[in-house]
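Example S7 (structure tokens).
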């Protein structure tokens, strides 16, 4: 099986009047179809910068990023991006918010509208389709934001700390919901998070980055000793703590 995403020797520096700041240093990895990858690292090390490179919002100074063997570019329709904030528009209903991406791309086909209806029903938002975003909980808003992204049927989904604004209990429940949705929809995804437990509970592999300029310290495959794995049940796996300790030590080397 060929990788869906190939990141090869990516480096990037920011240039300002005060000088040059190196952000990423020689980052390389592959992502296979259907795989869920998490990226963890110290605050400010360049995790979000890496996502911005993958989706074409930034251009690397060195290296290449390929999807299905073709370079990524700004506005690449093959890539969906879910941010920390849901960015739902208060003057539009939940249904109209979910349609927004399709409206912009002029892709409001009967097939895609039926797909949205199915997702709203499946993921418990159909009875809120005419509600305003302010009438929904934080978790339901994030679910709506995910449906809006999935409506475009991206091949790759980028998740930039999408649960960080939620309280802890809601965060656990929403990460469990979204993890199940992505598995059910067979989506390939990359999650950036500060939460080690969240990364272990959701990912097939975890990339541990160093402090800036970010380089890959370690790539950790996750094989939890548990049946019917979900983000919540993963936390009960006997070897969950071992993975946590391993990643914690990697993050705190030379700290």
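Recovered sequence:
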């Amino acid at each position: 099986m060929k990788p869906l995403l190939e990141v090869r020797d990516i480096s990037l520096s920011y240039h300002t009047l005060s000088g040059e700041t190196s952000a990423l240093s020689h980052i390389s990895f592959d992502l296979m179809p259907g795989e869920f990858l998490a990226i963890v690292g110290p605050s400010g090390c360049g995790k979000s910068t890496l996502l911005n490179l993958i989706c074409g919002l930034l251009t690397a100074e060195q290296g290449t990023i390929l999807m299905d063997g073709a370079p990524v570019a700004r506005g690449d329709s093959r890539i969906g991006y879910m941010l920390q904030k849901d960015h739902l528009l208060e003057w539009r209903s939940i249904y109209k918010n979910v349609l927004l991406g399709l409206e912009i791309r002029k892709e409001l086909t009967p097939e895609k509208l039926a797909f949205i209806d199915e997702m709203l029903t499946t993921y418990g938002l159909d009875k809120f389709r005419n509600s305003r975003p302010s009438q929904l909980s934080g978790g339901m808003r994030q679910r709506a934001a995910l449906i809006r992204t999935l409506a475009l049927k991206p091949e790759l989904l980028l998740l930039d700390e999408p649960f960080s604004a939620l309280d802890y209990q809601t965060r656990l429940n929403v990460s469990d919901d979204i993890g199940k949705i992505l598995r059910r929809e067979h989506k390939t995804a990359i999650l950036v998070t500060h939460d080690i437990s969240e990364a272990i509970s959701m990912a097939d592999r975890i990339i541990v980055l160093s402090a800036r300029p970010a380089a890959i310290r370690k790539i950790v495959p996750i094989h939890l000793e548990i049946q019917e794995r979900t983000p919540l049940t993963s936390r009960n796996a006997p070897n969950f703590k071992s993975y946590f300790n391993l990643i914690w030590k990697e993050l705190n080397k030379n700290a």
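Notes on this example. The radius of gyration is 18 Å.
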